[in-house]
Design a protein that fits this description.
Length: 253
Amino acid sequence: MTLHEITYTIKDIQGKGKGLFAARDIKRGECILSEAPLVYVTSNLQEALKSIFVLSKKNAKYFYALCNVHHDISFEFGIMKTNSFPLGQGSTDAAIFRVSSRINHSCDPNVHQSWNPKTKKGHVHASKNIKKGDEILKNYIPILQIQEDRKRLLQENFKFDCRCSACTKPSSERDLIITKVNICTGLVKESAESDPATAIQYVREVLGLLDKIGGICKTSYYYDGYQISAMCSDYSLAQEWANLLLESYQIDE
Ligand SMILES: [Zn+2]
């Protein structure tokens, strides 16, 4: 591996365990890391437990060094519950990764983690330009929620009080934008079949709002734009949405 290919380093963070940091400037869209799962976590938890017990000594060391916030269950299940990443949207299968499971949370993330079922590898792409030395941060929960709801969800599931850049600023402006996004999202769904032109207008309104909070979470709206345009046979517009969708597919939600 050349020096240019090394994108991250793992460092200790006071009071936060370990975290990943950019080893050089990283451009939006770059793949920061790709890795096969350390452990698969399916609905058959006994099977998952067995796979931990047969890990090599080196991989077992990686597994047991991961964070566990669930002390009311066994240590292994606690690590699984804390670090599992779902393998695809809505999938009940999940996995734990050697490096990407170490990435800390932000409600204003700079990377996006995805799963490629063909290569059976997890990927982490930069969703923003990242400066050398900056911490690499992903989101553990859906982030298009108001600050109070995000904080509650993170406390319930990951037992920490979020102090990310979005949660340490006054919440009112960001919360108002997120509320408007969620209202417009409902209107997109309501009008998609009956009035596709209006639905597309709402999609564009949402994208404009998302630009005000760092251009996060746009992919699903590009997909809405594509579906609505294709549904009313506007194929040139559908193509434009498809291009945007392909461009952001791996780097955003
Ligand atoms: Zn936060």
